[in-house]
Design goal:
Largest sheet: none
Number of strands: 0
Helix content: over 70%
Distance between the termini: 49 Å
Radius of gyration: 19 Å
Structural class: mainly alpha
Oligomer: single chain
C-alpha cells in the first residue's frame, strides 16, 4: 500500500526537478534565439520591431533572474546579452540615415532599459 503512494509522489518530484531545469535552460535558449534573430535581421527592423525586441529582452532577463546559474552559465548569459547589444548597435548603425530622429527615441529607450536592469538588481 505504501508503494502505491510512493511512486506517484516520486514521479511528481522527478517531473518538478526536470521541468525546472528545462525552464532554466529555456531562458538561455530564448536569449540565444533573440541574439541570432537580432544579428540576422536587425538591419531590416522597423522602430516597432526594435520595441518588440526590447520587450522580449526584458522578459527574458526577468525570467533569467528567477533562476540560479553556475558561473559558466552566467558567463554564457553575459556573452549572449553582449551579442544582443552588439546586434542592436549594428542594426541601428545600418538604419541611422533612415531613422533620423526616431533613432534618438530608440537610444533613449535603450538607456531606460539599462537603467531598469540596475533597478531590478
Amino acid at each position: 500500500m505504501k508503494r502505491l503512494f510512493f511512486y506517484p509522489i516520486f514521479a511528481l518530484l522527478m517531473m518538478a526537478a526536470f521541468s525546472s531545469c528545462s525552464t532554466k535552460q529555456h531562458c538561455i535558449r530564448q536569449l540565444e534565439n533573440l541574439s541570432e534573430e537580432l544579428d540576422n535581421n536587425g538591419q531590416y527592423y522597423t522602430v516597432g520591431d526594435w520595441e518588440d525586441a526590447a520587450e522580449k529582452f526584458v522578459k527574458i532577463r526577468k525570467n533569467i533572474n528567477k533562476h540560479r546559474y553556475t558561473q559558466t552559465e552566467r558567463r554564457k548569459i553575459g556573452r549572449l546579452e553582449g551579442d544582443c547589444v552588439a546586434a542592436v548597435a549594428k542594426g541601428l548603425k545600418g538604419q541611422a540615415k533612415n531613422l533620423g530622429s526616431e533613432l534618438k527615441g530608440i537610444l533613449e529607450s535603450l538607456m531606460d532599459l539599462v537603467k531598469s536592469w540596475k533597478d531590478d538588481e
